[in-house]
Structures
1.
Amino acid sequence: MSVQPQLQTQEPILDVRSVSKRFGGVEALKGVSMALYPGEVVALAGDNGAGKSTLIKTISGVYGADGGEIRFAGEAVRFATPEAARAHGIETIYQDLALADNLTIGANIFLGREPMRRLFGFLPVLDRPAMAKAAKETMARLDFHVNRLDAPVGRFSGGQRQAVAIGRAIYWNARVLIMDEPTAALGVPEQRKVVSLIQNLKAQGRAIIFISHNLQDIFAVADRIVVLRRGTLAGERRIADTNPDEIVKLMVGG
Amino acid sequence: MSAQTSTESRADPAKSRSRQLILRIAAMRAWLFLAILLIFFETWSRISYGQTFLFSSYNAQSIAIFAVAPLLLALGSTFVIISGGIDLSIGFIMGLAAVIAAHATNLAGQSLPPFAAMLVGITAGLVVALGPGLVNGVLISKLKVPPFIGTLGMFGVARGVAFLLAGGTTVPVANSWFASLGNGRVFGFPVVVIITILFVLLMHYLLSQTRFGQHTYAIGANEQAAIRSGINVPRHIRKLYLLSALCAGLGGVLYAARFTAGAAQAGEPLLLDSIAAVVIGGASLFGGSGTILGTVAGALVIAVIQYGLVFINVEPFWQFVAVGVVIIISVLVDQTQRKLGGDR
């Protein structure tokens, strides 16, 4: 019951083939397959315990798969750690954002790999101007225009912080972005901003998987919906060919 | 839909500007406290004694020498507290280093010339201080012992060992070089103060201009974020407690030099003073904020209160009250700042 996306000639950037994962006696994923194409947004839907989180954690290197295979840009890959996945360009943006609230946008983008410059020709110091410049440019690419580059990100709103987390991923050339409930903790206007952010990323040719409980957001931004139920693929639909009622039926197994 | 946005545009600009001003003043509160105290003592001194308080080089130097030991402890604690930890063992690590430095200088003096013996003593004091720091770091980063408990245990261990090594008494040092390290002057400035200023500059650089400092702030704000950014957090935490112990060790060595004697209890009253200096200096015990320059101001505030109250003949016990009041005011300002700044 696979649905071909619109760009059939292109090779999928991410190809998950009958991946399974068990925790002790519990089979969290029972041979799930899905593909993701560049410039495509796929929503991952399903009830609690359907296996959404397990699937994205398997893709992003948090868990190793027990069976099946994951292909990235045509090659079979096995990521031992999230860092290995990130090095390939698969970036996960978690619900709690993983930002250091006391640091600037630039410092957050470069956290762990800060650029250095030499003061007076010998003393290595943090290259704050370079960080601020990169922060400004990256945020502008996301259509967020921020002037206060020296303010800690804790002073920004939820949607802006979400943009910083996404900005960090795209600065380091993420080709696949996995977003776990990106709109869950936000107010309605901020949710709209994040939705437009995702459309912006899609236009840049990046591939996005996002988990959401909000069917309205899913229909606003996704090209396809992959529905999981109790660790199996319950169905896959193109947005144009489906409606919320059908998705809910797939989710609950009606 | 365009997501054009900027924080300022959403708030009333005048309100936002006064908020910015309040935040800026709150960030510098330690220097403000210091200025108020100096004005108070200067006024008092001129009215009661008809002489200056601050502009007497004797008073200024006394305050600076007074501030050296608690400041050295506080420098290391600034890093630890920013990372969201605490190090209660530094007082007795300082005592241990003082006793070891005294013993080692005397022992080496039997076979080496005084200058070399002094170097042996300094090295021994600093190296031995790193031991408890290493254990603290391993307990906290590997064995996941809460910093408060782990370093409280090390407080007891270092205290016991320091008293045992000192034989329950103070260990006098007979070494002319060591004595002039503690009491000598270069161009009129006390050597201990010069060493401390150089160390302050080094720590300021480390905290504000290096990856090490940046990662310390990140760990204090969001340890998960630091881990996900690829920072080796356990290793970083071990370095922090080593640094804290090194600062305490230096404090102990300079103490032994100044009094030409090592005493196990040298740092006992300084633990709380040093933590107070960090907190008055603008650090939050929740982690994530603080600066070296703030800590310097905090240490000076405490030293000015202690010296100044003696100077104007107030009963010494009022020092505790005054320092306590300043700590409480400082924490209240910190709370307000958090509320205004929206930092959690």
Note: The helical segments of chain A are 52-59, 82-88, 105-109, 128-141, 158-171, 188-203, 215-221, 244-252.
2.
Amino acid sequence: MIQEELPEELQEVLGELINIAFGSATATIADLFDNFATLHVPAISFVALDELDTFIFQDFNLQDVYTTTQQFKGRFQGEVVFAMDRHSARNMQRIIFADEGPGSQEILDDDELKQSILEISNILGSSCIGKLAELLGTNVTFAPPSIEFADTLTQERRALSYRHIIVISTVLDFKDMEVAGKLFIMFTDEMFNWLHTALNNYLENI
Amino acid sequence: MKILIVDDSKLSRLTILKRIPAAIKESAEIFQGANGLEAVALYKEHRPDIVFLDLTMPEMDGFEALQLIRDFDQNSWVHIVTADIQAKSQEKVLGMGAISVEAKPIAEKRLAEIFAALP
Amino acid sequence: MFDEKSILNTIENGILIVDPDLKIIFWNRWLALQTGISRQEAEGRLLSDLFPETGFNLLKRKVKIALKLGSSTFTSSSVEKYIIPIKLQQITKSTFNHMRQEVVISPLSEERASIIIYDNTALLEAKAVIDENLQIMEKQATTDTLTGCYNRKMFNDLLSAEVKKADRHSKIFSLIIFDIDNFKSVNDTYGHLAGDDVLIEIGGLTKAIIRQSDYFARWGGEEFAVLLPETTLQGAALLAEKIRAGIMSHRFAEIGNLTCSFGVAQFVPDEAKDTLISNADWALYHAKNNGKNQVAVFENSEIRTWYRPDSH
């Protein structure tokens, strides 16, 4: 697992890069929807695939959690999973649809909720991973995101050889509402080695 | 010259430190703080010529520290170096009297420009 | 050499280029064929002018996000259905009125985005058929085809789930197992088809008596089982008696009257699922041996007759 295999100084570098990437993602969302969020340093943890379920469900209610998944490809590749609960999804929906005129906020249908979730996960995923890749001197492309049920998530991932998962606890702290979620970046051994080297390079060339 | 660098991340402070033009670094006195409270205290104690201040910090954040530094010294020269690149954050700190807002990680070239522009 | 833009016209997907207001800069041949709006008619006009009935807020937002983000945004045919309305022709006999579309919006420059439209109709139609079949299969896997109640496998699963619930949240529940008296002679005298009719009728009678929260299954040949969540032994025995009386007073066509024997047990915390089944089974065995057409209960490791019509 990363925690054991990545030296502390490189974990620190990763933390700082993710902090920058998340700042960029927050700015994209806040500026897009003409809003403002108080930025917090995102908490970062490392988990094994086996612990993913526990990790998702310790903070979320099974009936209430939505997860989306999106693959990214390039020299740095893997999959990013975003989990958020209904309450946060509703808040995000209000922020997205706030500028679409009166009345639009009242229509809180399920399709719109799913749209909002896909939207936020695409923006967070693309800008977080995109920025992280950029800071590490490469770039990535993204496949379309899709909504999945949380209970099949881990099961299907087991077939893939993701051994490393970085968990970023994201909070978008808007003026009067909060959108909280968890971003899981999953990748293989090979990518872990690439990340290790890239972080090392970054540290050496500060 | 006195330089104050304030950021809760050691790595962020190191990034700025390492990228300050060598000629300036040689003769400069450099102070470091890890939160807004330290920023204000160090500012009052040393009256630095230039400050690099992060926004997202524990104890006291950069917004509050900037306000206190500006209240204390109308001529303070503070650059914000932050991951918070929201348009509204930029407007806010520029309105409070910050000289500029720099996105992390700040580039070596940009730092050279900043020092060249010092009054 | 060839004009690179002409490739866009040979592709079997919709491709258009728009500005942030969704003014059309480019409209490929596929779109012209599908919508009946030619390139000359489309280019230079707003999408909302071409399709006044359709809302384009979502697309506008996606374009805005793609331009700001500097990377692609997407819409999914399973959520948004379609972006540009394209009526499907009658001959395709589609279950949908409009083409289902998967759309990728990518930034080209600060003020230009490309929109690529994939026709996902066939895929979603196939998915609808598969989903429907899956539902049927799921139903078949859990129900007894003759009586329409749960089959033994499903009942076992429900029982296991109930045991777990009982252990975790200290809930109580009870089990009834019952069996048609002298069923063999029904089959021998009136034939198997008549026997099947009896099973169906008893299934119907029982379903009408049990509560919504109870689970009812065909346990085996002429044996049935009822799982009663949050029900004591007393409550279960009362219900068993109700079923017994209901069946006894029913007139089966051709055959006339029939009776059943019942065994009832309540789940004891920490005991195994199989122990509960064998306790109820043991009570049923006792009811059979004690003259049939009666309810016997298992309580504190002992069997006693709860109700026998001739004992009153």
Note: The longest strand of chain A covers residues 164-174.
3.
Amino acid sequence: MYGFDAINANNGWSIAAVGIIIVFTGLVMLSLIISQLYKVLEFIENPKRFEFLSRKKGVEKKEKYTLLFLSKNQKESAKQFSLIIKTMEEHFPLPKLLRLAEVNGLGEPYNNLTTLLDAGIVEPDTEGYFIWNKERFNKLVS
Amino acid sequence: MGHLFVEFFQNTGFYLCDYRYIIMILIGFVFIYLGIVKDYEPLLLVPIGFGMLVGNIPIFKGLGLGIYETNSVLHYLYFGVTQGIYPPLIFLGIGAMTDFSTLLARPVLMLLGAAAQTGVFLTFLGALALGFAPNEAASIGIIGGADGPTAIFLTAKLAPHLIGPIAVAAYSYMALVPVIQPPIMRLLTTRKERLIRMEEPRVVGKKEKVIFPIVAFLLCCFLAPAALPLLGMLCFGNLLKEAVVTERLAQTARTSLIDIATILLGLTVGASTQGDVFLTPASIKIFVLGAGSFGVATAAGPIFAKIMNLFLKTKINPLLGAAGVSAVPDSARVVQMVGQKEDPSNFLLMHAMAPNVSGVIGSAVAAGILWSFMA
């Protein structure tokens, strides 16, 4: 017997479906357990760290940028970079921005680009490219 | 005196040889070449390749030399394959050398290992459709798990007469991971997806690493008890490694023990490919189905990763899905290689190890499920 007849006769569809479901169930359960494992261990070892659970909300959020203010020169450089950005796509690779900065004769492009990264004006988009954070630029430069 | 020479000549390989032995010897050469020159899984391909030479010396039946003759030395060594003894020993060694840290740091990647097992069950259907009996179809399907010991173990239990072709197919495709996987991965992903960078995994604590093999063993074996011999040994090996105090045992498991088991398994599986037994239409079908199974298993991972990305806040590089097949660590290396072709500064190896090791668990569970259905 061949083809669908053979599959039907041997209960193939059900075995395959149930098999896939069991494999997924097993690994999903395991991943759920191990995703909570470190929290449980942390709680057992150091329950004091979880006191925040009983505390009220509203704790001040920690600033995620390492550079909070720009000097006059840094602001000038950021403005020059913003002009280059206008010629690029919204998501851009960092080496391309650096190369354009060099081609356009911007002073110390490496240092200034690091400044923009530290200030959060240029940010990774988590997909391997970078974006220009206009809001941050306006806050620090304008 | 003349007739003695004639008698002697009639017992030589030159007289007894037929084209099937020559074909298998040539295939043995290819395996040895791939192992030594191309460096494709040499620890497996060289013993199997040489075993093919051993198994295909034409011999006078009845002398107790061939692997299928009950009083031969090779037959006794082959006992470890037919009774499923070597695969759990290999799993013990794999457990003792595997670091589950990346999996513990990002458990969601475990789903990619589960997705890859889809290939196993789809090939099971394909084998049924081609006229194989359910036991044989289950053994053929497990080739998609890309896990040689698991394939041999399940086949030994369900379809011992197919051990030769299934083992050779499974190890061939495992060795050809760097050739088979990249085109499928590139076909199923866009450049932008291949450029996705993974977040740095968190540091995993010692206690987590010790608890994991115990939890994984209990959960998976309660769910699929037939996975016990393989998963039990895998988790035990890992516990020996992580417990630190049993380092001496772990050291033996990941060096001498796994090496001995691999040598005996490789050589006897190779020797089991005797031309007159091996070269049948069924073997060709198994090779074709095995390739399909491996391709589907490879494709299922990236596709599932893309589906996961629809729901995840932090995106996963879909290339990682291809590491869901349990060819450890080759498929993880392939992910790294394909990812770095797009962006040399993108390091995916560490992240790819998570679906890779979960693929080992997944294929053992899949084997257990198939065994329990067919038993």
Note: The interface with chain B takes residues 1-4, 6-7, 10, 12-13, 15-20, 22-35, 37-38, 41, 124, 126-129 of chain A (CB under 8 Å).
4.
Amino acid sequence: MAGSNFDIRQRISAVTDRVPAVRKHVPSLGIGDRLPFYRRLSGGQRFAYRLLLPALAAMTIVHFIPILWGLTISTMGVDLTYASHWYDAPFVGLDHFRYVLGIENFDDVLVSDTVVGERYRNALKNSVIFSVGTLVVTYVLGLTAALVLNQKFKGRFVARTLLLLPWVAPVVVSLYVWRMMFTQQGIINQTLLTIGLIDEPMFFLIGDNSMWALIFAHSWTQFPLVMIFLYAGLQSIPKQLYEAAAIDGAGRWGKFRYVTMPQLKPVSAVIVLLMLLWTMINYTAPFVLLGGAPPKQANVAILYIENYAFGNSQFGRGAAMSVVLFLIAMVMAMVYYRYLFDDETTGAGA
Amino acid sequence: MIPEEWRLTQDRADFLFDLLSRGVLGLFIVLALFPIYWMVMISLRNPEEIGTSDPSYFVLSLDELRTVVFEGDLDLLASEVDFANYVDMWDQIPLLEFYVNSLIIAGVTTVLALAVAILGGYAFSRHSFPGKRYIGGALLATQMIPGVLILLPMFLLFIWIQTETPFKVVDTYHGIIFVYMTFTVPVAIWMLRGFFDSIPASMEEAARVDGCTRFQALYRVALPMAAPGIAATGMFVFLTAFNEVLFAGILAGGEVTPFSIGISRFQTQQTTYWGQMMAASSVATIPIIILFALFQRPIVEGLTEGGVKQ
């Protein structure tokens, strides 16, 4: 009977599917290979698929379909007229992309639109500065904090809790506090005036300083995350490595240089990538800190896209701009990974 | 020549190094706490004083502080600490409504996202199945997608549903909750997978031998053991939903405005009510900080689990 053959197979796989090493050595019964995909699965595997079904369904609706959809409307002239029936909008091919990337100027659009492309490219540049700047600041702050936390002292747990608070406090709230502190009468200006570093109040939220203010305020909310990742990495470094380094005559610097940093490389790799990508697509920080009319020095791409697409009801072109931003994030991630994993010296990186 | 007793011995170098690192730690703690401290201080100030150029770091000016400390003049302290902001903020903007909206949106999002993510995280932790790598990769890839890329089609979809079908989705609880839930599920799955990984599977196997179904083993045995991790993940989801501004601004800006968007109304064309804004912020922040203090161990472990292992 075919059925009994199937039962045997199921019983074997019930034992073996937990242990991949054993599974390899179980000879195939032949018949199972011809069964349809779903019947070939063991009970545990079917159970796993059933458990994942709600999550996959929801992600399909809110992630995968919208991305394909976003790609579609980035090739269509969707504006206010077509807002409620986007599918009727005319197909424009790659015009939006050519336009926002400045490859070609179009005569059939508004005159002021030439400026839009320039502003968008400027916003892209700002996004990269914001992302790299935040990475550097959070990494330096996070690593320093992790190193001082990693020593044995009384009250270490309390200190760790306190250092995590910037990340725990609701980001929106923290950023409004920073916005308040950065104002002309704010405490930062007052302090600098009292110390005598400046003679008159500085502008932090408009003009050239705004990017620095943005990077710093955002870094304040994010450095605890970097810190806790690196701290966990520091904790997992085997003590023997330090002992061996001490025998070889390494001092504090030597241990840091030849034990700590190489051992932290895998953790650093993950958190560096996450910080780069998350900052690149962060909307909350620039929106709350700089508000609806951000200065051009700190108008990052995602903020610009949102303002432009919804302010002018240019949904198709907005989608094209978001696709470009997405591709830049992807390329950054890929270049970073290629660099990281091709580098022989990292070793532990994989 | 350096005198003998000044020479830098190993002990002294260690001592100096410890001193230095404690100093750096102190600096970091000040840096981390000052904005939070300042938020509370501004909220306790008299609204008229906030804009003045007196750079005192306390509700009292230095002279007043001296009077309070050295002459024990507690009445002065009581008269300077001003709770007016905490009283006035409710009338300035419909703040209570914003809080309630945020609690409903973030609370329901948390419950739904956890329900979905517990199942998914358990599947990832306990089972191997074809395509696991790809599904896991897709979960992480969702983290690189700029919000606007999702928001634009979502907006068009919501508008279409609103105009072409009898359902209402724009500016409703269910609309924004559905979007938030799916947004937080990938990270929640990732965190919960780590928590389930840290629980030995032997108990569930024993339960299976005793006749439990796979699902019973999940919710009767594994679920209670993962409770701290679930609480931590829940808090993470809650905070994510509470802080969201991009989708909330477009899809829920009107009747169901959450706190994250509503708080900006303290800024008007004429003036900004910083004192009241900070009072409202303190009311939102302090419960969250207390909750974090309670659940911090699993939260911290859950966050770093995935990153350190890879």
Note: Chain B has 15 helices and no strands.
